[in-house]
Request: fold
Amino acid sequence: MMPKSRVGVKQTQAPNQAVMGFSLIEALLVMVLLGLLAAIIAPAFTSGYRSIVLKSTVRTVAATLRYVRATAIGSGEKRALEFDLQNKEFSAVQTAGKSAQSQTVAGFLDLYEADAPSTVTEEQTQPVVFEFFPSGGSNGHSLVLAYRHKRYLIDVSPLTGKVKVSVPIETVLRIKPENSPE
Reply:
């Protein structure tokens, strides 16, 4: 049994009791292992996050295109959605040529026309305009949203104005397309 301690008097430990706690070396070893684990796992979360942002942006662009088409049919007037590829922005064009508030695509994503080179140069300042008519048809364009090897094709049919999102075959097969920036 341990003697009762008094203020200022050191308590002694019985010889058969084990010392509880961790040594400095054990604590440092655990910290190093946690650091290594964090260094290995962090890039996986970053890549996963960017992939989620890509999918979310594709859905947002497709939903906005569908909304603009529905607005054109409902109002009986031509409506448009304008894409500024250089600044990675898009906005709905209201009547009288006025643009609504623009939305920005995340900076790490690539945005380009499906039939054009994937790198947008300063000379290519003309925006891509998707026009929708009261009949439901459109002028028909295709865009690609990409991050690394993941690419999504957003295609608008000229006859029906139907918006279709698909994964291009080179993404599925991981083939580098001719107009790829990588």
User: Anything to note?
Assistant: Residues 86 and 125 are 7 Å apart (CA to CA). The chain has one domain: 24-173. The beta strands are 79-84, 89-93, 103-104, 110-113, 128-132, 142-147, 150-156, 163-166. The domain at 24-173 is CATH 3.55.40.10 (minor pseudopilin epsh fold).
